[in-house]
Amino acid sequence: MSTPSYVPWTEKHKPRSIAEIKEIVGEAEYIDSFVSWLRNWKPGDKAALLYGPPGVGKTLLVEVVAKEFGYELFQLNASDTRTEAALRRLVGQSSKTVSLYGSKGKLIFLDEIDGLYGVGEADAVKAIVELIKESRVPIVMAANDPWDPKLRPLREVSVMIEFKRLRSSSIIKHLKKICAKEGIMADERALKIVAELAEGDMRSAVNDLQAAAQGKKRLTVNDVSWLRARNRQYQAFDVLRMLFAAKRCDDARNVVNSSLLDYETLMLWIDENLPRQYTDPEELAKAYYYLARADVFLGRMNRGQKWELLKYIIDFMTAGVAMSKIHPYRFTKYGFPQKILLLAKAKGTRAIRESICEKVASKCHLSKRKASTEIMPFLHVMFEAPGLAKHDVSRWLGLDESMEEFLKKHR
Ligand SMILES: Nc1ncnc2c1ncn2[C@@H]1O[C@H](COP(=O)(O)OP(=O)(O)O)[C@@H](O)[C@H]1O
Ligand SMILES: [Mg+2]
Known about the structure:
This protein is of the alpha/beta class and 411 residues long. The protein has 20 helices and 7 strands.
């Protein structure tokens, strides 16, 4: 294909007609409801409010239907139009233009209506309600969450049309089509993984597919496995945030239950991110004390099969760590999930990595932490690539075989 590679596949492979959408999602009530609302609309009728999770084709359907029925779309994204004044000006103009020419061919589309926020949002809602009542052309809106109390006045003047998460099978169908057009042989299982991770969100599925498959002739399960790791990382970020923000012991403990991470992995995450979250030495010392206790108990539990110790381990690493907090929780960027995932996966790699960092630190006169964050990534790249100066570097640093192996494999 000659299309330049920076075109997002969500654009390039977007369905262009109602039939094409139906080919993917099957016969769908929401499509028919919207079409019949539009065809039957006359001045004084309700607006349409399309709602449902992101990436399920709300914006897409409006665009496609407008095109197919020959409407000129007058499209506004509500989250770009924060003040009532701006909104009023924009919609005012269009409705006037419309009434002036008595044109029937326009469709006003207020997208992401739940993105209205801040000062004047109530006025904006009022302005839209007025517009809906006066308009001589149909108005359609879209929202992720239409149940927001501030949108209530809009719900009252709208026909509500619900979009659900897309089925995995629909997503797979679309992904297959894209692969065919891009000349990629894709394993069914790989597509299945992409589709399932997207949880009904076509935009995210297509974006993931592009990230994993673009430029390839084949797409295997291996090519998409990192997507899963990435999702787990998000999981861990959320878990850490809940943990560090917990105000009560119970809330902190519950974090373990609500997470997919096992406690050993969670411990690594906490260990890595404690110094990012807690900057006051007193907090940090206390939190490390509890984490160390958890680690000691973990050792005892594993050595002696004393499973009854687990509850103490969990208490120490959750409640203990969370209650060490002196200052209020503040937003923190958590770090280096990849490394931790790898450490969790491969026993022993942690020690190897440590000793590489030690060598780098002493040779380069850096702290181990700097060596870890700033030099290690380059070493990984260097050792993965064929050629380059890795042998010289390895000799200079005094790396042994296991360390070289580690740098090659464990990015
Ligand atoms: N039913 C669908 N069939 C094929 N592609 C879809 C479908 N729904 C969404 N997409 C893809 O996902 C992208 C995002 O959809 P969009 O309509 O913007 O989602 P929403 O407005 O619901 O957040 C579209 O550009 C299109 O590429
Ligand atoms: Mg949209």
